[in-house]
Amino acid sequence: MLTLKLSPQSATELAAHVVPEFQSLTFLVNSETTDIALDDRARLEFQCPGLEGKALCLEVSVVFRFEAGELKNWLAVAVSPSQQALIHYLRYLCRHHTNEYGKLFHQLVNDFCHSNQR
């Protein structure tokens, strides 16, 4: 099983990785490989802000991939619904930063659109 990593420095940065367009809790992560497809399962090692050095391991599945050259390593991964307690904890961490939701996703889409207009 592939291992992905996410290490936000703050709850604000964590919220920016949330992709609200999907029904379940979904994060945008940068993978080191492009050998992963939609619906593949992976493990997300997650350095959580506020848990000094403790890593969480989340079971995730790939729900979205960029197909474009410079964005191919970016994936949207949904946390498995069986991890309801962790989902609630992560939503709790982001509760004051919901205005940051989707910012990274939208920035990547905009950067891609602008780079292809030239």
Describe the structure.
This protein starts with a strand and ends with a helix. The mean pLDDT is 87. The protein is an alpha+beta fold. The protein has helices spanning 11-17, 84-94, 103-117, and strands at 2-6, 26-30, 41-47, 55-65, 74-79. The longest helix is centred in the last third of the chain and has 15 residues, at 103-117. Strands 1-3-4-5-2 form a 5-stranded mixed sheet, with no helix packed on it. A hairpin with an 8-residue loop joins strand 4 and strand 5.
Question: Could you provide a short overview of the structure?
Answer:
The chain is α+β, with helices and mostly antiparallel strands and 118 residues long.
Please state roughly what percent of the residues sit in beta strands, choosing from under 5%, 5-15%, 15-25%, 25-35%, 35-45% or over 45%.
25-35%
CATH superfamily: predicted glycosyltransferase like domains
Computed over alpha carbons, the radius of gyration is 14 Å
The CATH architecture category equals: Beta Barrel
Q: Give the helix level as a range of percent.
A: 25-40%
Spatial gap, N to C terminus: 39 Å
How are the strands ordered across the major sheet? 1-3-4-5-2
Query: What is the string of SSEs from the N terminus onward?
Result: EHEEEEHH
> Strand pairing plus helix content: what structural class?
alpha+beta
Helix tally? 3
Q: Compute the average pLDDT.
A: 87
Kindly report the CATH topology.
Answer: Thrombin, subunit H
Major sheet, described briefly? 5 strands, mixed
**Which shape, going by the Cα principal axes?**
globular
Number of strands: 5
| Unreliable spans | none
The CATH class designation is Mainly Beta
